[in-house]
Recover the amino acids of this structure.
């Protein structure tokens, strides 16, 4: 059983509803169909994923090298997030 599949969802209807209601501009939790991704959500996530995988030279090796450089710049490489003034 695929628990993440809803056979009753019609993507064209959802996209039309979202365009009519302006859901694309609302934050995800406040949308009418909050549990569903719009085409624009998918495109943005794909773009973020592609940019995360490409480094300065646009390759996976470049991304890994950039991540190592970032890690080496921290005072303690075991601490992933440094607390800021507001956290």
């Amino acid at each position: 059983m695929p628990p993440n599949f809803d056979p009753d969802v019609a993507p064209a209807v959802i996209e039309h509803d979202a365009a009519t209601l302006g859901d694309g501009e609302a934050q995800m939790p406040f949308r009418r169909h909050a549990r569903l991704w719009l085409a624009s959500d998918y495109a943005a996530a794909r773009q973020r994923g592609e940019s995360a995988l490409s480094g300065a030279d646009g390759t996976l090796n470049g991304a890994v090298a950039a991540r190592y450089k970032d890690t080496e710049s921290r005072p303690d490489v075991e601490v992933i997030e440094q607390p800021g003034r507001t956290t």
